[in-house]
Amino acid sequence: MLKEATHSDAEQIAQLVNKAYRPEPSERGWTHESELVAGRRINTEQVASLMSKKGSVLVAYEGNELLGCVHIERAHPYCHIGMLATIPSLQNKGLGKKLLAAAENLAISRYGAQGFKMSVLSSRPELLAYYERRGYRLTGSTQPYPAEAGVGQPLNANLHVLELIKPYHAPGCGNA
User: Fold this and answer.
1) Is 90 strand, coil or helix?
2) Could you read off the pLDDT of 3-58 as tens digits, one per residue?
3) What pLDDT is recorded for position 53?
């Protein structure tokens, strides 16, 4: 079941995101960054702050088990999509694609997005390729890893964040 998260989901979302991005060696799926960044990716308070008038978090549940999440935030005329995570055992099984599509649809329907932006770590070519297959393209914008943001400490001083963008072309507007 896919739904919009509430503050009562924040702790479970933080646990899921940390497990997906910075798991223990025995729990690693293909999309982790444990060799690149040390420390927690997010905490409960940070997750709760993402749920606001300009942002939403979508979650996928099976019964009471949280399987995945994604964050959408209005940044007119685009929406920023981030924190896409699934439990490691479900990675590479299609749930991430479904969550990304749902995030894009919400960005259009609720926030009137004209496109989508996201960030990927520079040392994650497999993740970059994943998003490129879904229509995202590098913008050329590169920022240093935001160590001061409380999202972990880079293990390599040359770690950067790359920006990707995907324009939205409304059906029937003559865009090919």
Assistant:
1) helix
2) 999 999 999 999 999 999 886 766 766 667 878 898 899 999 999 999 988 999 99
3) 86
Structure tokens at 108: 């259009």
Would you say 60 and 69 are in contact if contact means Cβ atoms under 8 Å apart?
yes
- CA 1, CA 7: separation in Å to the nearest integer? 18
All domains of the chain, ordered by start, with CATH? Answer: 2-167 (3.40.630.30)
Q: Is residue 121 predicted with pLDDT exceeding 60?
A: yes
Alpha helix (H) residue ranges in the chain: 10-21, 44-49, 95-111, 125-132
Q: What is the pTM of this model?
A: 0.91
- For residues 55 and 103, the answer to whether their CB atoms sit within 8 Å is no
Backbone phi, psi, residue 92, to 5°: 70, 30
φ/ψ of 98, rounded to 5, equals -65, -40
Q: Please state, in angstroms and rounded to a whole number, the distance separating the CA atoms of residues 58 and 76.
A: 19
| End-to-end C-alpha distance for the chain, whole angstroms | 33
